[in-house]
Structures are given as C-alpha cells and as structure tokens.
Design a protein that fits this description.
Elements (H helix, E strand, L loop, with lengths): L1 H14 E9 L3 E10 L4 E11 L14 H20 L4 E6 L1 H5 L3 H12 L3 E3 L2 H13 L9 E6 L4 E6 L4 E7 L3 H8 L7 H25 L7 E5 H16 L10 E3 H11 L4 H5 L6 H20 L4 E4 L4 H12 L6 H6 L1 H12 L4 H18 L8 H13 L11 H10 L8 H12 L11 H4 L3 H19 L8 E9 L4 E8 L7 H18 L2 E6 L4 E2 L1
Length: 543
Amino acid sequence: MANSNFRQENMVSEQTCILAAIDIGTNSIHMVIVEIDKTLPAFTIISREKDTVRLGERDPKTGNLTEAAIARSLASLRRCKDLADSFKVEHIIAAATSATREAPNGLDFIWQVEEEIGITINLISGYEEARRIYLGVLSGMDFQEKPHVIIDIGGGSTEIVLADAQEPRFLSSTKVGAVRLTNELISSDPIEETELTYLRAYVRGMLERPIDEIKRKLKPGETLQAVGTSGTIETLVGIDAIQTLGELPSPLQGYQMSRKDLKDMVKKLVSLTYEERVDISGMSEKRAEIIVAGAVILLEAMTMLDLETITICERALREGMIVDWMLSHGLIEDRLSFQTAVRQRSVYKIARKYQVDLGYGETVANFAVSLFEQLAGVLHDWEKSERELLWSAAILHNCGVYISHSSHHKHSYYLIRHAELLGFTEIEIETIANIARYHRKSTPKKKHDAYSKLPDQYRKRIKQLSAILRIAVALDRRQIGAIKDIHCKYDEEYKKLHLHLIPSNSQDDCALELWNLDYKKVVFEDLFDVKIVATAESQLVIN
C-alpha cells in the first residue's frame, strides 16, 4: 500500500509543478502562484499577492531608487518568498520593469534582492515586457482570428501591442505611466485646466509614433478589437461595472467599457480631489493618487486608435512570464495551438478539477454537437460560437455531482459560473452555466433570476441549446456509450424528426436509452414544434 501511495504521489509530481511569477513594477509588486498541469498543458492560479510599494519613487537629483522605496520592496519580496515557500513552490521567476531598468542603482537593487532574499530577478526591456504581456493575454483570451490591440498601463510605461492569433505584429513600450506622469506633470488637486491640457497633449505626443505604426500594420478592411490589462484599466473598468450593474463582476474578465463611458468618467475624475476620488466605489486609496493620469492615457489611446470599446483581460505580464517559462521548458510546443485551444483547454481543466467523468462527458458532448450540426438550418440557425458553448456545457453538465447528486444541475450552474473559464466572455460563461443548469428537471423560467436577467437572444440560446443537451444526455442513460452514432432526418410536412440510433453493440437493443429519450424528448418537441421518432437498429420505435 505504501508503495502504491508513493507511485501515485510521484506520478502527480511528474504531471504537475508549482511555479511562482513575480512582477516588480514601478507602482507595485505582484506575485502569482500557479499549479502547472503538464499534460494539458495549462495552469491554475492558486494564490496571488500584491503590494503597492512605489518603487518608482526616485531621488530627483540622482535618479536613484530611494532607500525608502527599496526598503518597501525588499519587505514585500520577503513576504512573497515566504508565501511561495508555504506553497512548496519549485521555481520562482521574477522580472523587473521600467523603474528598475531606468534607475542608475537598479542593478544594485537586483543584486541586493538576490543576496538577501535569494530571488533572482531578470531585468527585461520594454519590448520584452510587451511580448510577455501578449503571451499572458493569449493564455486567457480567444482572439477568434481577429486583430487585437492590447493596452497595458503600468506605473512607469504603457505597452501597446498589435497582435492576432498567430503572432504579435507590433510591440511597443512608451514612457507614459500613471505614476510617472502623476509625479512629473500633476501638482494640483483637483488638477488644474492648464495641467490637464498639457497632460493630454503630452500623452498624445508620446503615443503618436507607436499608434501610427499600428495603423500602418493593419490590413485593408480589418477592424481592431481592444483588450485592456493591469491595475489602472482594471480599476477604471471595475468602477464602470459597479456604476452600471450595481456590483463588481467576479471574474471581471471579459467585461467591456465604452469610450463614451470612459470619457464621462475622466470628466468626473478630473473635477474631484483626492479625498473625493477615494470615496468612489471600487477605488483604492493608492490607486486614487494616480488614476487621473492613468485614465487620461487610456482615453487618449482609445481616441487615437478610434476604439469604441475595450474588454478587460485579467491576465498580463505575470501570466505571460509563466507561459514563456512553459515554452522555454518544452511544455508548449506550438504557441499557436496553445492559443487556439484556450477555451477547450480551460473547459477540460475545470472538468478535471470537479472530477467529471470525461469519457461520459465527451460522449454526451459528441451527441450534442452531432445533433446541433445535423439540425443547423433545419430547426435552428445558430452558428459556430453557439456550437462551442453547447460543447462546453455538455462536457461540464454533470460537474455539480462534485457537491451533491441531489439537484446537481443547480450545483453545476454555480460551479461553472464561478469557475475560471478562460477565453470566454462574462455573458458566454453565464450562457454555458445556464445550458448545463437546464439539462434536466425544470425548463428555463422567467422567475429564475440568473436566466431572467439575460437579454432575449441569450435566453433563446439557452432554451434551444439546453433542449438539445437533454436529448444528448438521454442517449447515454447507462453511461456506457451504448449508442455509437445518431442520424437525423426531418420530415417537414408532418413535422417529425426521425432519429436513427446506431448501437455500439449490435446485440444491444438500447431499450433503456429509448425509454429515457421518450421521457426527456417532451421539452424539445414543445420548443421546436416537432414529434421525435427514434429508431435503433433493432427497429424498436417510439411513436
């Protein structure tokens, strides 16, 4: 027994590893601790740490990092090291950006950290920072073959990346950051009109070259999608979400803010004192000090790029450091396949987390997708994106059993809704969770709060896709893969849908599956106004 346990533990350690990534920025030090599953490959965030240390606070005469800023940073990094040790982290990777890069004593600070704490810091260029931000966003978003511009506003610099699903087309790092511009250009509170005018003109002048280059690299007819990352943009988007929805979405990933709403927010922020900014719901004390400069940077960038909306991505430099480590250690052979499979990989990761029987889940998903494709243009007009939502819900529909078999469909909704499903927008996650929720028992009803809050088009998706999922679930009632294939034929004149079922075993009459289908088909029949006639190769028919 002891040997068996040892083999199991050894196998787990070979399949997974614990990694910590530390981002030492101008404004703050962030650490993320992840468990890497080498078999997918994917990683799960298991802990985060953040300290606002203002490392970019420099001596005005020498340009050196101040002793106070270094002391705050050393204390923060010691806490990071202690937390990493408590999680039995196998590797710590750390990167320092503009504040350390520009300070004459930046290398001295790096050596001091290594000597006193034992953390080796890589000093990276602005372009390398932009590249890793791109990798981080790739790990959490699906670009769907469209060009994206990634905007990351840090304390000392702003990285703007033009990228598609294949590669970053253009990387830039410009010395306009929320801390830098606050220190150098803002002395009044609230900011005076003359300072605001100069701040805007300065930002436009600094961003002009990289933005012109991005425009030149766009192909004819291409429309940019915008992604925002890191603390300043997360704060602005979070404030907008609270004001719009009355609460902060969790996760914030995928939430969109319009340029119009941002413009209105900037107009309000520049009229407020620091104390008044702190009182805004969603604003921290430290962020309130630098938010005016950060908001102006974002608004000017969106205006110059003619972007109407921006979507938040909660992954950035730290996660990009992890992806880069995985690439360099041979865990990801093809970055493109890693990107295009982000949704699928995330669904499988959540399925594994909640101990879903993947053989059964994949069987149901295959049936659901087969029905979806055969009925496309016949009973429904949904497209590829809805197919993917249905597949995801089918894989995860039974995950609620992890909590309890009783009402497991409701537990499935909760687990999916609050899972870290990467690559999906907030409303797509809500849709997947609802499709899974209605694979059994009650049909969607307006008295169900989560369902009733959705727009009509999404409610229609949920009704029709969950009805298809019910049929797919019925066709694997014994969860043994008794049915190998389904062939659909629709008789429009008599409004009959013929399902011809091919058993995996020619001697199996699939009686239990046919009986369960007879029980489950009513929702589908009422919704699509058809009569289902199912026939197995044994010629047993349900009329």
